[in-house]
Amino acid sequence: MKLTATPGVPVKGEADIPGDKSCSHRALILAAMAEGQTRVRGLLESDDVLATGKAIQAFGVSVERDGDDWLIRAGPWRSHCAIDCGNSGTAARLLMGAVAGRPGTRVMFSGDPSLSARPMGRVTLPLARMGATVQGGDRLPLTIQGADLGGIEHRNVPASAQVKSAILLAGLGTAAPVSVVEPVPSRDHSEIMLAQFGVEVAVADEPDGWVVSLGRQRSLNGCDLRIAADPSSAAFPLVAAAIAPGSDVLVRGLLVNPLRTGLYEVLEAMGADIGVSNEHIQSGEIVADVRVRHGALRPCHVRAEQVPAMIDEILALAVACAFADGESLIEGLGELRVKESDRLGAIVAGLAACGVSAVADGDSLRIFGRENVRGGASIATQGDHRVAMAFLTLGLAAEQPVEVDEAEMIATSFPGFTEIMRGLGADIR
Ligand code: S3P
């Protein structure tokens, strides 16, 4: 299915953004490792998260819907099974960690062609160093056999929350010292959620970086969780509001963990009109209502160490930069080459097709933004959900409509994207 975004109308109103993808995966996985029952409200029901749900069911865990909530009841895991992680890097990498620390459990991991092209050695090498048996190379399919693990002190460079989380989850099965050192911090949802399940996790600011370590208490007790709206999904309607004249969009209950809000900080520095209210804590995470109104944007300069806090929002940021008159520079984007698609290549090609010049030079991206963006292109998404949403967003404020060649995979992360954007007045068909 193709979709076309036609410009000309502002986006206005309240967008009901579904739950955060990272937190949703973690809620299911930690619940599967816990004693007793976990109740989750606001779980993202996207293809990626459902892949994690099916995987833990294959382990023998009960996962069922109860009205608006999901109930997860763990029991003993099956000793052998095969799981298909679909398109989800988070499912594959976090579940590898969870399996690695369970002696007697052996799981074969596979995924779709995009996931099967993504590097897994960043997770399997530290897990093997801890003592897990890994059969296979740097790519799926591969098999992990859990063991009585030893400890590890892992230096997490480049900053990856998936790698950190896999090591922490593996470490739950051992009493040995387990720590991850992060010169640049990655998202800390695993640490925050582990604490909700009763696990001791310490974070210390040391000369080498942030040191995240597991304490003595490593068993999990089921709990009640409420998941906040996903800032990576909200990025699209909120960037649409920043670039389409006359727009004004509000997202309530947005996850505003500082390790996820990089895009919003940069947008504000670019001159976007952003209002934050009703900040509060929900299941250990900071949540707030965020309102964005259209305003003239200036170009930005994003340094490499700022990128982990907006790694999934670079496409949305690139769209904002296209409308900021002048040269924007975003550094440290090497990881974008190994996401669901080569996103750096996708940005450059897509912007060029829409009449905006952009250059990828090593890990850096320069975008030569302009007040009036032509649009009028058909974008090859390479099956990447965020590429599709980014260029549909651009189309809402360009001079001519923008089409994307494929749109079903938007359900990977943001089911309801089209309906929500239409609800704000956007012309997407
Ligand atoms: C995620 C971490 C990030 C991010 C991904 C989700 C997570 O990946 O891009 O979409 O939930 O831990 P890396 O850890 O590989 O940077």
Could you characterize what this model shows?
- The chain is of the alpha/beta class.
- About 30% of the residues lie in helices and about 30% in strands.
- β18 (about 300), α10 (about 315-320) and β19 (about 325-330) form a beta-alpha-beta unit.
- α3 packs parallel to α5 (about 120-130).
- The protein starts with a strand and ends with a strand.
- The mean pLDDT is about 100.
- The site of shikimate-3-phosphate (S3P) has 11 residues, from α6.
Summarize it.
It is built from 13 helices and 24 strands. By secondary structure, the protein is α/β, with parallel strands linked by helices. Helix 1 packs parallel to helix 2 (47-59).
Q: Order of strands across the widest beta sheet?
A: 22-23-1-24
Largest sheet: 4 strands, mixed
How much of the sequence lies in strands comes to 25-35%
Distance between the termini: 10 Å
- Which structural class best describes the helix and strand composition? alpha/beta
The number of helical elements comes to 13
The gyration radius over C-alpha positions equals: 21 Å
**How many DSSP-defined strands?**
24
